[in-house]
Write a structure and sequence with these properties.
The protein contains 18 helices and two strands. With about 450 residues, the chain is mainly alpha-helical. It folds into two domains: about 10-405, no CATH class; about 405-455, no CATH class. Strand 1 and strand 2 form a beta hairpin. The radius of gyration is 24 Å and the shape is globular.
């Protein structure tokens, strides 16, 4: 962890994104028409949908970081406006455009589509995660299902952090915070158990054999926003340990210099691969607590451990943050929301068999998939630089301007009073925090102990 940068985080984000893409790529290949050895490899890559869990753990890890810094440094609760504006600027422009385009495509190519207006409304309001009829807000861009789940987690994070800040007050400690989040995890898992008891759909047409609505009914309540917040919390806990380990420590530095964090990161990475290989033949929801998807808590714990060790590693973090992975991480949101639209465009206009288990021959499947990935990278790059980045830059600029204009406004008030004959001998205890921007996470965090004192102003 150097200069406030989470080493290895870009690499993990890139891996998560590529896992999801490979999952959809290997879905197109008819598995039982392949040799036995190829079937085993395909089963492994079909578990790439676990990349979604990587995203949730990573989001909890990165977004909670500024809260942890403020908490452990004794600072104030981070501004909610900054948090909301930056999250909205990051998610909404690309997501809304993908929603609109995929919905229009659905009207054109799937004229008998059901619940299209309901799906569109819940998708645009990030409420599609609460019912199986709307779980997939877009029929032709199915990865958009996870966005409303993420937004739900974005909302809960500052709420739980506000409770932590309020109840611990100035008597803060790392142990108290970890115990609080461990308790929060238990509370969330209990709530998830209630969701299973109260909101499990009936068994009528509950299967992927009945299309996406039947598949959504099969997924729920195993897929529900409360349960996914448990994945998110694993990232929050990992972030807390990362910030705590960033404190000066001779022991930690010795461990780092000996490469023990690098060894730990390699072991966690290897454990993730071996775990996914081991469970490749298991039935969905059969491995994990409460029938949670993506092998919670086993896989999520491994991802969390990987993030902590990478942040303090000497070499592994930099190795994972290689130029290709950094670029992939930069455009990962675009890759995630656009690649399935590209898959469907290829299906409609280029390769009529490029649907789930539709390709029997691996050669045409391979070059069609390479075309899809290349097109997705191009579109995601354009989406990032022409749509997503301008909105993010504007949000950062406006928020920065608000920070900087606080001082001139007070000076203007002082001058106005002087002109009206009011003598101001002193502006006491006026101060403003200097902040340093945390790269990639969308927050401003205080620099310990540094405050700008307002000098005495006399007429």
């Amino acid at each position: 962890m150097k200069n406030n940068k989470m080493s290895g985080a870009d690499g993990v984000r890139a891996i998560a994104c590529l896992l999801v893409i490979f999952h959809h790529v290997f879905q197109r290949l008819a598995i039982y028409d392949q040799p036995v050895w190829a079937q085993e490899i395909q089963k492994f890559f079909l578990l790439g949908n676990s990349g979604v869990s990587f995203f949730f753990v990573l989001s909890g890890y990165l977004l909670s970081y500024p809260f942890w810094v403020r908490y452990l440094e004794g600072g104030n609760f981070p501004g909610s406006r900054q948090y909301i504006v930056k999250r909205a600027a990051r998610i909404m422009p690309g997501y809304y455009l993908a929603m609109i385009i995929s919905t229009i495509m659905g009207v054109i190519f799937l004229p008998n589509l059901q619940y299209i207006f309901l799906k569109f409304f819940t998708g645009m309001t990030f409420t599609s995660c609460f019912h199986y009829l709307t779980l997939f807000p877009s029929q032709l861009d199915s990865p958009l299902w996870s966005i409303s789940f993420e937004v739900f987690c974005y909302i809960l994070l500052p709420v739980f952090m506000a409770v932590l800040f309020f109840f611990t007050g100035k008597k803060r400690s790392f142990a108290k915070a970890i115990l609080f989040w461990a308790g929060a995890q238990i509370l969330v898992l209990c709530a998830n158990g209630l969701v299973h008891v109260l909101f499990t759909p009936d068994g009528l047409y509950r299967s992927w054999h009945y299309g996406m609505t039947g598949g959504s009914k099969w997924w729920m309540p195993n897929y529900n926003p409360v349960g996914f917040f448990a994945h998110f919390i694993m990232g929050v806990l990992a972030s807390g340990f990362t910030v705590r380990l960033a404190a000066p420590s001779e022991m930690k530095e010795k461990l780092r210099e000996k490469g023990l964090f690098d060894i730990g990161a390699m072991l966690f990475l290897l454990a993730i691969v071996l775990f996914l290989w081991t469970v490749r033949n298991e039935k969905e929801f059969s491995v994990g607590f409460q029938g949670q998807p993506f092998y919670f808590p086993y896989l999520t714990a491994l991802i969390a451990g990987l993030l902590v060790t990478l942040a303090h590693s000497k070499f592994m973090g930099g190795w994972l943050d290689n130029p290709f992975f950094r670029f992939t991480a930069k455009i990962s949101f675009g890759l995630y929301i656009w690649h399935f639209i590209v898959i469907n465009l290829l299906l409609f206009y280029y390769q009529n068999f490029y649907y789930e288990s539709g390709m029997r021959e691996w050669v045409p499947w391979a070059y069609t998939s390479m075309i899809m990935i290349a097109c997705s990278y191009v579109i995601a790059t354009l989406s990032y630089y022409l749509l997503e980045k301008p909105f993010m830059d504007r949000a950062h600029k406006d928020l920065k301007k608000e920070e900087l204009t606080g001082f001139p406004r007070i000076v203007y008030k002082v001058k106005a009073r002087i002109r009206t004959g009011q003598v101001i001998s002193r502006l006491s205890s006026a101060s403003w925090p200097l902040s340093s921007r945390t790269p990639s996470y969308g927050f401003s965090t205080p620099l310990s102990g540094r405050r700008l004192k307002c000098s005495t102003i006399r007429p």
